[in-house]
Amino acid sequence: MTQTLVVIGNGMVGHRLVEILRDSSWRIVVFGEETRPAYDRVALSSYVDSWTFADLELTPLSGCEIRLGEKVVSVDRERRVVVGASGVEVTYDALVLATGSVPFVPPVPGRDLPGCHVYRTVDDLDDIRATIEAADRPGRHSGMVLGGGLLGLEAANALRGMGVSPHVVEMAPRLMPIQVDEGGAGLLKRLVEKLDLTVHTGTSASSIERDGTRLIAKLANGVELDLDVVVFSAGIRPRTDLELGLELGPRGGYLVDAACRTADPRVFAIGECAAVDGVTYGLVAPGYAMAEAVADQLGGGSKVFPGADMSTKLKLLGVDVASFGDAHAQTEGALEVVVNNAVAGTYSKLVVSDDAKTLLGGVLVGDASSYLSLRPLVGKEVPAALLQPGGAVDVEMPADAQVCSCHAVTKQTITDAIQSGVACDVAELKACTKAGTGCGSCVPMLKKLLTDCGVEQSKALCEHFTHSRAELFEIVRATRITTFSDLVAKHGSGRGCDICKPAVASILASLNNGHILGEAQVSLQDTNDRFLANLQRNGTYSVVPRIPGGEITPEKLIVIGEVARDYGLYTKITGGQRIDLFGATVDQLPEIWRRLVDAGFESGHAYGKALRTVKSCVGTTWCRYGVQDSVGLAIELELRYRGLRSPHKLKSAVSGCARECAEARSKDFGVIATENGWNLYVGGNGGFTPRHADLLVSDVDTAELIRIIDRFLMFYIRTADRLQRTSVWLEGLDGGLDHLREVVVDDKLGICEDLEAAMAEHVSDYADEWRGVLEDPEKLARFTSFVNAPGTPDPTIEFRSERGQRVPVQLGIPEVVR
Fold first, then answer.
1. Which one of 212, 295, 561, 781 is least enclosed by Cβ atoms within 10 Å?
2. What crossing angle do the helices spanning 426-433 and 443-452 adopt, rounded to 10°?
3. Once rounded to an integer, what is the mean pLDDT over residues 179-205?
4. Cβ(264)–Cβ(246) below 8 Å
5. Is 60 exceeded by the pLDDT of residue 296?
6. How far apart are the C-alpha atoms of 682 and 52, rounded to whole Å?
7. Can you give the residue ranges of the Nitrite/Sulfite reductase ferredoxin-like domain (predicted)?
8. Quick one: pLDDT band at residue 392, thresholds 50, 70, 90?
9. CA–CA separation, 530 vs 438, rounded Å?
């Protein structure tokens, strides 16, 4: 008979348990109080970047019954029955409590007033956002976060993302008192206060009062704060509100043994609601370890909770912070080695045994790059070089060292996977070991271990070129080769393929070697570039005229409407603030272009690996929250970079304030207005693997902003691999964002003048590709459906009507009945 496992709680830890057991013989029923599926609560503040829940959602689970929005109201342990709020009853053979925790709200008078929130769930963030948007305050809003620990600083970061200047109030004498020592906290405070935060330590809120539409918070030190929103993020408490008759730990949590089993042998507790031998843990990694132990026992094993590594590495408000081992030197006789470089903005402390031979722990602030090397050495002999200022940290990691703390994956497990041939890159390591699939902080170490094991990724573009795309770019640039045939004859072999030909065509176009359909390039292009339009599923093409910044006059709108009407084209507004015209045949393209070009339109390059759009909000032109002219800048950028050929498509956006309506941080390069200028973000993208862009520079004026974007784009075009988005390129760049900043901002390599000159050449040489075809009879002759019968429409192309427009007939696919 199939046994039933009931899991109460659909958070990250409960999700991990079910993920392990979903292919087992257990029937699994999950009760989740939230209406949303399980999501990454560790990355909660990133929700503010896009307000898209899908960015946080964990991998959907199959093979189990998940009851979302169903709160458990009671459990009858004698009958082994769980009762939901809807009245549903489920009988269990085993019960796992994964109820997590609840925010701790200090007993501050006024804590229940409208505008006061906790910071725990996606719904909490939606509520905070609604409060801010309803606030009637000109200029930037003001908020208070009560709590200066890890969660408090995360909440403050979320408020910044919503256009709020946060005050952080912490009762302890320093920020992050659990993870960071006094010296590290002092530097952290100085660094975050440069980011529009005001820090109040050694005090608390004594009361919160309503004053019209505002909140007035009075602090214990006599300071009064005029606020729009208050967020409580002062810690958590294990959630144990179900009346189960089970013993609790001394600080809360269901008391369990090392097997995570309560006094009732059929009931387990895991995650933040569990007190393992009386100890509760507030990090996700120990929760995962508990889930794995319980899953093993439910499968007939005897695995127990191995204890927890409470080390943490995170980036708070753009500042690296890490602590590991005995960070506060509580071990008797412990010695501290401290390097506090206030000029560089870095702080490091190593804690060693009294004989200076064993590493006990440490704290890193401002630069945590050595964390992955140091953490596995805790409890082991410390190399003498580490105890010297600026000492080397790239030391040999022992085989049993834990590389991935989220999933307890050791170096030995990873190297075994590499040396056995199971994994030859980071993606395969993630799949077979789960390392790097949690917080992601261990991914750089995975790359290092691949290299250490002798795995080298081939740089060859394809079988015809042993060079990488970046190397071929420099060859073409230096030798001034203008044709594929010359390049493959001198630096390659064979006749080329569908990999190298488009890549070389992109390089030639990037170096301004004539029209994209010139004799030197036309044979290299794929179908989209060859016809300057996007091929669709039924053999027709879509035409996308450029609409810089999304701004368009009524007269131009009328022209697009008339063209669509006259040629029977399907029209759709794109996500990049343009109008897509679908259903044009090859022979119609020049006719359509002529009418659009005559009306002042030009190619939007939707077909090419080039700049697509620069999206914008309305900025100061119309919006009462705007602080800069986002539309004007978006138009300037789009007209500057139009036609810029690159390894992959480029998308951009400009937001007129921190509310981020243009979604600039999901773009290859995005700009967000500040009261002092512009912030530039780079390396973001949507697609299969969405990535939020990283902040490259802050508060720069328009001229400096454009200079840095020029350098960034040209550096990317010269060094990226074939079909490599800026996001993947940046993640694979040696030194990452810091190296990029050194190159394009600090000019460490001395190439910025050359990069700017290359962009200036592109700007001066730009010519519309559509117009170029219309002015060249030889190019026009290519646009025919049938060579032997020019002007004859393709009889295989059929349409049907849907919602008043023509759409393709999908042959072999039954029509949907509406």
1. 212
2. 110
3. 89
4. yes
5. yes
6. 19
7. 536-597
8. very low
9. 43
